[in-house]
Structures are given as structure tokens and as C-alpha cells.
What we know:
Layout lengths: L1 H19 L31 E5 L2 E5 L20 E6 L2 E5 L24 E3 L10 E2 L4 E6 L2 E6 L10 E3 L7 E24 L2 E8 L1 E2 L2 E6 L2 E7 L4 E2 L6 E8 L2 E6 L2 E7 L8 E19 L2
Antiparallel strand pairs: 1-4, 2-3, 5-19, 6-9, 7-8, 8-19, 9-19, 10-11, 10-16, 10-19, 11-13, 12-15, 13-14, 16-17, 17-18
Amino acid sequence: MQTKAFSSFTSLSFALSCLVIGCAAAEGTDNLTGDDDQGTGGTAGDTANGGTASGSGGTTSGSGGQGGSGNATNGGTNSGGTSSGGTSSGGTSSGTGGTTPTGGTGGTSMPPGRATIPLPYTDDFETSEAADWRFISVPWAVVDDGGNKVLQLSSTGDSETTWAVGGDRNWTDVRVEMRVKFVSGSAMILLSPKWKDLDGYAFVEYEAEDKPKLRRRLAGSTADIITAAETMTFALGQWHTVAVTLQGNSATLEFDGVVLGTATDSTPVPNGGIGIAVENGIVAIDDVSVTVP
């Protein structure tokens, strides 16, 4: 009986030990990396809690056999005693499962661009497939335009979501030139010769019939730098060349080879790549050129 009880207790102890050992959950990491530091990583998830286990040992009971009776003197009969085996009930075991870990929060992303791009820089999209460009939300695509490849907005959006950004955001003094055309809709163009981030960029703003402006957005405010003296008309499907020179505090705006104005910007955007965004329409660009003035 002692041997059987000890064997039952040993087996039960081993089972309970297995239940008590919980699974460890490693904290996850969400490292969002680009070619520069325009993104933030996510937060790690919660650690899981191991489960709990409890159980009661089994019970063992039994009664010994009764001794025989007999009368040796008178030659009586001797009857063997009776014996009933003890009963044994298995122990009970219960446990609660561990808690499931919760995931971390996702990071934010900005278009990374290439780490370093020397000047002069050109892109006619014939072979590059816009490899140096990044799109904040609404994508742009390289499409055929009468046998010529151009970069064109794929669907309408607003000036916050349609940015196509290229170049090197370490550029400082630049002359940026590109061909631009309205493809469809009643679009407003924001063409940036110096794009640092969504709250730091210089930009040319104009619609199909407008006085183009060179403006600057920085630290939550927007200021006009140059405004054309005359209203200009830009028909759908017609290419126009826009050029901006930014050198120190000096700025110059040109359309189709004609200087529309020169001015001094007291608080210029210090550095940035290039970009373009569109409100309420489709626009295409081609023959991008960036040089040192």
C-alpha cells in the first residue's frame, strides 16, 4: 500500500509542476527604418502573464483483514479472516490560462527618399521609374504620354495626401526646373523647390487661371514671397516650364523662361528636397532638373 500511494503522489507532483511553469512572452519591437529619420517606431506590446494551477492530492483508505477464529483444544474449525482492499481516488487539478499579450502601437512614416543625392540632378522618368520619389498617401505613377514617360498623379486628393517627394532633403541653395501640365479636373498645383516636411517647404501655388505665387510654409504659418503681376491661363494638356531659384534669402520665380519676380525671404526654409501636390485634379510632371545656382 505504501508503494502504490507513493507512486500516485509522484506522478501527480510531476503533472502539477508542468502546469505551474508558464510560457514567457517576449516584448515585441516595431523598428520602422528608412534612409533618414522621418519615421517613429511603434511601442512594444504588453507581456503575457503565466497561467495558475492548483490541485488536491488523492486519498487512500483501506481496512485490514479480520483474524481467523478456531478452538484448537476441541479441534474446532479455523476460518480465514476477510480483507477488503483500500480505495484510492485520483487528485483533482484545475488552472486558469495566462493572459494574451496585446500588440504595440504602430509608428508614423514619412517618405524617406534617398540618403544622399549629389547635384546636379535630373529625372525624365524614361528609365528611372521614379525610383527616387516617395508618395505620402495617394500614389503617382510613371505613364506613357504620347511616347514620352511622365510622372502623373493616379487619383484626386488634397494638398496633404497627394505629395510626391523626391531629391535630397539636405539640399540648400538650388535652382529647380520642371515641366508641368494640368491633365484633368479643376486642379490647384503646389510645386515645391524645397520640401523638408509637411510643415516646412517653399512652394509655387497656382490654378488653371491664376496669378502664380511663390509661398513659404514654416512652423505652422504661410507667407507669400512672390506674386505674379498678371493673371495667367494654363489650358488642360498644355505643358509649361516652372523654375524657382532659392539662394540664401533670395528667391526668383519663372514661368516659360519669363521672370515673374524676385524677392527676399527673411525666414527661408533652410534645406529640403523637391515635391509636388495637387488639389482636386490630375497633374503630370516631366524633365525635372535641380542644379546649384
